[in-house]
Amino acid sequence: MNLAVIKISGKSLNEFISSQIGVKLIKDLRKKYSSIILIHGGGNLITEWSEKLGIKSSFYEGQRITDSKGMEVTAAVQDGLINSKLTSYLQSNSIQSIGLNGIDMGLFKAEYLNKKLGFVGNPLPNQSYQWLEQLLENKVVPVFSSVSSDTNGNLMNVNADLFAGAIAKLLKAETILFISDLDGVMLNGKFQSSLSIENINEGLSTGEINGGMIPKMNTCLDLLAKGVNNIWIGNNFSEINNSESNLGTWIIG
Q: How far apart are CA 61 and CA 213, in angstroms?
């Protein structure tokens, strides 16, 4: 299976679905890849809805601190509003798709990351995933919210970058694309066209790579270690297939 995993940040969702940009991206990728999986974040919209409900948004090492009330908002926004919008957008453009999350068919169980974060976890493969492979073989595009659950059935907030990495490793994806509102990864005061493992570790140690970029870069390091070597980060969709472009950042081993 020749698989591309696309992770869309919450800040890029409106651009993705407000025109034919998202459809064009998927159709272009289908010329090269037999299967595509779409994974979405929702951070800015979760923050917006949390504020409306009087829930303060706090973060620790790039991850949202999530108590039980915050988890309810996260699940409602990601699983309900965002996932439905994305799936509806693809269907309306004749791209067969299905909305899913990490709980469905027991795909993942989330392992708690840190007590400071609350209901926030790392997704671990739990059961058979042949059902997901069958969807891909039938040219269906799974659209995943990263919401998962722990072994006791509690809803868990899983960072969408970590979730995308877990999917890519599980299905041995050839390529993973992180689409965000940024032009790439900034290091030494400018956006870099490519980053090595050494560059990433340097940026993490100096603190220049910070905030939400921390889990993304840790995911990239893990992906490289697991043999996923085609990784791109950026916001210019038209440049994704152009490894010679200076737009976006390619992560290299």
A: 9
The CA distance from 138 to 229, in Å, is: 26
Per DSSP, 79 falls in state: I
pLDDT digits (tens, 9 = 90+) for 205-243: 999 998 888 888 998 999 999 888 889 999 866 556 554
Taking the CA atoms of 182, 187, 190 and 191 in sequence, report the sign of the dihedral they define: negative
Per DSSP bridges, beta strands 141-145 and 175-179 are unpaired
Residue 20 CA: distances (Å) to CA of 63, 197, 236: 31, 35, 14
All domains in the chain, ordered by first residue: 3-251 (3.40.1160.10)
Chain mean position to CA 156? 15
By CB atoms closer than 10 A (0-12, 13-18, 19+), residue 77 is: buried
Note the residue count of the chain: 253
Are 219 and 62 a contacting pair, CB within 8 Å? no
Mean pLDDT of all residues belonging to the chain:
91
pLDDT for 182 equals 82
**Mapping DSSP to helix (H, G, I), strand (E, B) and coil, where does residue 12 land?**
helix
Nearest to 185 by CA among 145, 216, 143, 144: 216
Going by the DSSP 8-state scheme, the letter that residue 194 receives in this structure is E
